[in-house]
Design brief:
- The protein is of the alpha/beta class.
- Strands 2, 3, 4, 5, 6, 7 and 8 form a seven-stranded mixed beta sheet that branches. Strands 12-13-11-14-15-10-16 form a seven-stranded parallel beta sheet. A six-stranded parallel beta sheet has the order 17-22-21-18-20-19, sandwiched between helices.
- The longest helix has 32 residues.
- The protein has four domains: 58 residues, no CATH class; 98 residues, Nucleic acid-binding proteins (OB fold (Dihydrolipoamide Acetyltransferase, E2P), Beta Barrel); 182 residues, 3-Layer(aba) Sandwich (Rossmann fold), CATH 3.40.50.300; 162 residues, P-loop containing nucleotide triphosphate hydrolases (Rossmann fold).
- It is built from 24 helices and 22 strands.
- Helices cover 39% and strands 20% of the residues.
- Bound molecules: adenosine-5'-diphosphate (ADP) and magnesium ion.
- The site of magnesium ion has 5 residues, from α11 and β14.
């Protein structure tokens, strides 16, 4: 009986209910899952050496006859195998595997993968992989060729996985069908069944490359489909086009106490242009911390209101919503704009329309939204979700124009892949008056010196300067470290005796947090110790010193976001990143922090983290359900481009694109 791709793995010969559990742990439930479980690396055992050569080289694959097998008991059960070929003999040792006596037959010929260890002059060969010689290399599964090493689970070795896949090998072309059919013509892509065969049983490196190329393409094509579909859908939605009220906007721009940067101007143009269309804008404003995204959004809002519609600005926290409210009241004071705040304790959206509403996500979900809503701005977006957009679409017949502003810069490859359908405006340039924030990597043992310096700096400024000291978020589960912070707080109060030191953390009520921040802003507090609640957006111009403790626990994007809390005036500002005491010298963790200290651009540090730690680590994509690539590289934008062209074509020409989508490698 030939299995098909949806057959359960228990239908494969030799996989019982118990063994199946081990496969389930690897998310392998069906035959397809098993075939799509692919090696993460390979070992080349295709060259066979003589015993004499291997003694010389110290390792390699040999073809040898078993002369003798002995079991001895010395603390452990030890199987000793004596093997020979024309050039010599070797003694192989296996620990705790007495059953091997059955599979290693005296007088038969085997392939062995040998590694000679040398411990204080004694040479040994332990637990060598082996496989009986089959005379025809085709029949060899585990040695004498390139072999794949797979992600394993407890009780399930690469050897077992490889064996089960081998039992399906001759049927692969029947189980896996080619989803792309005619579309493969004029491409340099291998078929899917052939790629699956090659990825498991390559004859050489070239086979591996060919297979990986095709599998990467399928992974990108899946993303490309999602992007193109979203694009088609968006283009079918309607929103109200708006006029650009140039004179009015110029008056506002003239009223600002500074000149806009080129990047700000360009972003404003792109955004306003989008809102003149009948299809909703879907744009990402990707900018560095402190690059002045707020004022860009203000101009889009002003234009919307002048056109007679309402606008919503959503901030990630109530504190930030409040801060925006104050900012907008101030900058719009001569423009007669109706502004309303919508946070937990001030939550009425009044009936009147043609206004600006500022709030947080949560509250707006419960509200009746203004009928004339035509612009939604999400500020300081960390997440990759699109839920809010979906939400606003459901509420109104017309889809409002939609602008997302990033909290820190997001590298190109990520915006393309995960925000692929979005248009992107970038602000790389910082306002001219900004001074570079001097950033230092401070080894743990210099921590107290650093605090002494800060104390002196604040005192010498006649309490004009202020400092943040940041700790990683205290989670409920981390009772221990929560306690540590309280102890730490007492310690710091002692160190900074004579200065006013306060502690702001996530468990305080919103009102208490606001009060602390207010006191800090009014310089009643000199040093604010905080968990990352202050991370995003907070604007306190006289805070000139940022200390980040246990800094290795933060992603670089987050560190950069924190660093952006200082250097917000023309005063000289400082940032100290201090690792915890268990970060070793020159460890990757220390290198990351040193890179951060030496680079001031948010785009650079985000790219560094993406290259070194991968998107899952950096952006928590694992949790958000965004698919992770098995083969494709997130940096391969060329491939994405090709995939998008094909996806577009398929969606246009094919009468069953779903079939293709379902049968791609994943
Ligand atoms: P972010 O992009 O991080 O949200 P903000 O919009 O909060 O940054 O801007 C940071 C500060 O820079 C604000 O105080 C704002 O008034 C000021 N600002 C914005 N644009 C300019 C500019 N072109 N020149 C000088 N200061 C600016
Ligand atoms: Mg901001």
């Amino acid at each position: 009986m030939i299995l098909h791709k949806d057959s359960e793995i228990t239908e494969i010969k030799g996989i019982g209910i118990k063994q199946a559990q081990n496969f389930y742990k690897l998310n392998i439930f069906t035959v397809k899952d098993l075939l799509f479980h692919i090696p993460f690396r390979y070992q080349d055992t295709s060259s066979v050496f003589s015993i004499a050569e291997v003694k010389e080289k110290g390792e390699g694959t040999i073809l040898a006859e078993i002369e003798d097998v002995q079991i001895t008991y010395f603390k452990k059960k030890i199987v000793t195998v004596k093997v020979k070929d024309d050039t010599g003999t070797l003694r192989l040792t296996y620990f705790n595997q007495p059953y091997l006596k059955k599979s290693l037959e005296k007088g038969s010929i085997y392939l062995f993968d040998i590694k000679i260890t040398n411990k204080s002059g004694r040479k040994n060969i332990y637990n060598s992989k082996f496989e009986k010689f089959k005379y025809n290399p085709e029949n060899q599964i585990h040695l004498g060729k390139w072999i794949g090493i797979y992600p394993e689970s407890r009780g399930l070795t690469s050897r077992m996985i490889r064996g089960k896949i081998k039992s399906l090998e001759k049927d692969i072309s029947k189980i896996i069908t080619e989803p792309l059919g005619e579309y493969l013509k004029n491409t340099d892509l291998e078929t899917l069944p052939s790629s699956i065969e090659k990825i498991h049983f390559p004859e050489n490196q070239k086979d591996i490359d060919i297979a990986r190329k095709r599998l990467s393409f399928d992974e990108m094509l899946k993303i490309a489909f999602r992007i193109e579909k979203a694009d088609i859908k968006r283009k079918s939605e309607k929103s109200k086009p708006m006029k650009i009220e140039s004179n009015y906007l110029n008056n506002f721009i003239k009223s600002l106490p500074y000149k806009l940067t080129n990047d700000q101007n360009k972003a404003i143009e792109e955004i306003l242009e989008d809102t003149t269309k009948k299809i909703p804008m879907n744009r990402l404003l990707n900018g560095d911390v402190g690059s002045g995204k707020t004022v860009v959004s203000a101009i889009a809002i002003l234009n919307t209101i002048k056109n007679g519609y309402s606008s919503i600005l959503i901030a990630p926290t109530t504190v930030l919503a409040q801060q925006h409210y104050d900012t907008f009241k101030e900058i719009f004071k001569d423009f007669n704009i109706d502004i309303e705040i919508c946070i937990s304790n001030k939550k009425t959206i009044k009936k009147a329309d043609n206004k600006l509403i500022i709030g947080t996500h949560a509250i707006l979900y419960e509200k009746e939204l203004p009928k004339d809503l035509n612009l939604v701005i999400i500020d300081e977006q960390h997440r990759f979700g699109v839920e809010q957009r979906e939400y606003f679409k459901k509420k109104n017949k017309l889809t409002p124009h939609y602008l997302t502003m990033t909290a820190t810069p997001i590298p190109r490859s990520l915006t393309e892949i995960f925000f692929g359908g979005l248009d992107v405006s970038e602000i790389r340039e910082k306002p001219k008056n900004r001074k570079e924030i001097k950033t230092f990597f401070t080894p743990f043992k210099k921590r107290n010196d650093c605090f002494d310096w800060i104390k002196k700096n604040i005192k010498e400024s006649n309490l004009g300067n202020q400092a943040f000291i940041i700790y990683p978020l205290i989670e409920e589960s981390e009772k221990l470290s929560a306690k540590a912070v309280v102890t730490e707080f007492r310690y710091l109060k002692e160190i900074f005796k004579g200065l006013s030191v306060e502690f702001l953390h996530g468990r305080l009520k919103a009102r208490e947090k606001e009060k602390l921040l207010e006191d800090f802003r009014n310089k009643k507090i000199n040093i604010l110790i905080s968990t990352t609640v202050i991370e995003v957006g907070i604007d306190i111009p006289d805070a000139t010193i940022m200390v980040i403790e246990d800094a290795e626990r933060f992603g670089l994007a987050q560190l950069h976001q924190l660093r952006g809390r200082v250097g917000r005036s023309d005063k000289e500002s400082f940032c100290f990143v201090i690792p915890s005491s268990n970060v070793e010298r020159n460890s990757p963790a220390e290198q990351r922090l040193r890179y951060f200290a030496n680079h001031s651009s948010g785009f650079e540090v985000a790219e560094y983290d993406l290259q070194n730690r991968g998107p899952g680590e950096v952006y928590g994509l694992k949790q958000s359900g965004v698919p992770q690539f098995k083969v494709a590289s997130i940096h391969d934008l060329k491939l994405l481009k090709k995939a998008r062209i094909l996806a577009k074509r398929i969606l246009k020409e094919d009468n069953n694109p779903e079939y293709i989508l379902e049968n791609l490698f994943e």
